[in-house]
Design brief:
mainly beta; four-stranded antiparallel sheet; disordered N terminus; 35% strand; 1 helix; single chain; 458 residues; globular; 36 strands
Length: 458
């Protein structure tokens, strides 16, 4: 076992399968099935693997939400971060609305003219970084933001914006410091002027693609970013996990001991004092920290449990999912690792120590590839009780959040990155559906986008 860089104590918890609290019961969702599926297109039909969180938004204002995603072909595309094709399908029947495989030569926000397809393959986007969607120009229509492929050396990444119909809008300035090719974009109005900015890791862009500021850092750091008002001054901060930036790019707080470590942050008020804490999962150490949101100091430290079934020295840990499972107004924390999905709860340490995150239950999974997948929580039955939705390398599962009872298991393969299922009413029938991605480049036989529903639900 490796000694923790943070505390000097042993940081890895290995769990015997015999000790797991695993529940098997009659599925409450025995009839869950595909409502529809997208498995390929007449435009570049071989590009039909998907490994990103599907984004649901009404692109054409027909009252029916649509699903936006990026497809790719096999292992080289996803690992190199290239040749992704932007696609959109209608949520009611999965018919294709558009596919964007190439936009040719364009002039970017810094005046550089270039062919956006920078490789020999068809497609020009990073498939694993996913997309962000929202109205960035105030025209009342949704725009789509994706990450442009960069075969150079992770030093000159750019964003690409598309109109609601898939037509090209702009390509951004290049970033000025390294960035990982799996860094997703997010939208937030940082300065309160009514126009959102675009955040990608430690970089912030204006709505026209010009670079507002670049917070630097290592390409391993800050893949995902969260925006929240940490100090209750009405102005949001940008949180990577290793640091928090003010909206102007200045440092709010920083943890130098987390440098060059991948971090996944989430924000919530765990102690109900009116100020948020920052929860940080560190997959390289199989650890989870709860930080003081105003200073970045460690309040709680927990190891992410795992079973050594993947021949890994650690159990990983993906982006945390927060929801109040037991109605006490304090969120529980769902985290997936290499071999277990675990639900944690916040339990104040009355001794003043850092032992305040406790495992409520763990269930066996299999994610030996990334060991960093995300999950979703939603009250699927409308009974006030949360369910957890999770997809590992082989299966999509639904757990009862209160005790970990497995309610559904469906074959659905993925090589896995940090993707998670999406819950939304995609056909405007008043009933939530589940949207999941699939790919067979590593495991499984499924490909594309699947929309799941329960035909017997009211």
């Amino acid at each position: 076992m490796e000694e923790s860089r943070l505390t000097g104590r042993r940081s890895i918890v290995q769990v015997s399968l015999a000790l797991l609290s695993v529940f098997w019961c009659a599925p409450a969702y025995a009839d869950i099935r595909d409502q529809c599926a997208w498995t390929g297109s007449s435009i570049q039909p071989n590009s039909n693997d998907v490994m990103m969180t599907p984004v649901v938004v009404d692109l054409n204002e027909d009252g029916i939400p649509d699903v936006v995603f990026i497809s790719f072909v096999g292992e080289l595309d996803i690992n190199r971060g290239e040749d992704g094709i932007l696609r959109a399908i209608s949520g009611d029947d999965c018919r294709e609305l558009f596919s964007v495989a190439d936009v040719g030569c364009q002039t970017c926000a810094d005046g550089v003219s270039m062919n956006l397809n920078q490789t020999a393959g068809i497609g020009f986007l990073v498939p694993g970084a996913g997309v962000a969607a929202g109205d960035i120009d105030g025209d009342g229509r949704v725009e789509i933001i994706a990450l442009l492929e960069d075969p150079a050396a992770e030093m000159s990444f750019r964003l690409v914006a598309f109109e609601h119909d898939g037509s090209f809008k702009w390509c951004s300035e290049a970033v000025r410091s390294p960035m990982h090719h799996l860094t997703p974009a997010a939208l937030a109005d940082l300065d309160g002027d009514g126009t959102p900015e675009i955040i990608a890791g430690t970089k912030v862009f204006n709505a026209d693609g010009t670079l507002r500021w670049d917070g630097g850092g290592s390409p391993r750091e800050g893949r995902t970013t969260t925006v929240a008002d940490l100090d209750a001054d009405g102005i949001p901060e940008i949180v990577t996990g290793r640091q928090a930036f003010r909206s102007d790019g200045s440092i709010f707080w920083e943890r130098a001991d987390l440098s060059d470590l991948r971090t996944y942050p989430a924000i919530a008020d765990f102690d109900l004092d009116g100020l948020p804490e920052v929860l940080v999962v560190i997959p390289g150490l199989s650890q989870m920290l709860l930080l003081n949101g105003q200073t970045g100091a460690t309040r709680c430290l927990a190891s992410i449990p795992f079973v050594d079934t993947c021949f890994r020295p650690r159990g990983g840990g993906g982006p945390p999912t927060l929801a109040d499972v037991d109605g006490d107004c304090i969120p529980e924390i769902g985290v997936a690792g290499s071999s277990l999905y675990s639900l944690f709860e916040f339990v104040p340490d009355l001794t003043g120590g850092t032992d305040c995150l406790a495992v409520r239950w763990s269930n066996p999974t299999r994610d030996c590839s990334s060991a960093q997948t995300g999950s979703a929580m939603f009250d699927l039955e409308g009974d006030g009780s949360m369910e957890i939705l999770y997809n590992d390398e082989l299966h999509f599962r639904i757990y009862r959040a209160s005790d970990g009872a497995q309610l559904v298991e469906i074959n659905n393969g993925s090589g896995t990155l940090i993707e998670n299922p999406t819950v939304a009413d995609v056909d405007a029938d008043g009933q939530a559906e589940i949207v999941i991605c699939a790919n067979n480049y590593a495991l499984g036989s499924e490909q594309g986008i699947r929309i799941l529903h329960d035909p017997d639900s009211p």
